[in-house]
Description:
about 250 residues; Rossmann fold; six-stranded mixed β-sheet; four-stranded antiparallel β-sheet; phosphate transmembrane transporter activity
Amino acid sequence: xxxTRDLTVSYGGVEALHATSLEFQAGQVTALIxxxxxxxxxxxxxxxxxxREIPGCCVGGSILxxxxxxxxxxxxxxELRKSIGMVFQQPTPFRxxxxxxxxxxxxxxxxxxxxxxxxxxxxxxxxxxxxxxxVKDKLDKSAxxxxxxxxxxxxxxxxxxxxxxxxxxxxxxxxxxxxxxxxIEETIRAIxxxxxxxxxxxxxxxxxxRVSDRTAFFYLGDMVETGDTKQIFSAPRDARLADxxxxxxx
Length: 250
């Protein structure tokens, strides 16, 4: 689905992410783990070219989406982000109604026409975000009136409304309580079961073990080790990964 080859990121000439090559498959959840400042969020932001918007940032190497290198100055970000969606650490609902949050991007891209299509997409997206039953009678209410966990699920539903085949999650549960976190994790698993490629940055080792099929460990700008999550957590090959998993540093 998406692949990087020798991906590097530099800020003002200082390399923050060293040559990183990873592959991500459809229908799988991949967790990116590692201590703060190790490069995992920097890597994640490369996948839909968000780093391009940071002054002084230079991204080298290749980012292959369906085999096509999108790491070029000519790439249309507006079109690319229809297919590679992102959910951020803090919920980011628009100051609009729940319904308008879901329909904002599909309307802009001309993907819906008429009330019937709009209603169907709103319900489909909110069900996919595990939120429909809680808000179906409040669709015209402000999204900002929802709880933090509900707002984050709305952001997931809003992303899914564009029917992406890759969804990036940058610590989506860090500001949430355990119950909301569990619901988000179940939603991420359900997204992957629909054939979507999901990639999640997390500091929570238990979360990575619960939700992901594969895991990649980053340390000081290097992608140190990657593999099936069960293998990574039960038999890490690199001593730095073993030390991180056992809490010797973090």
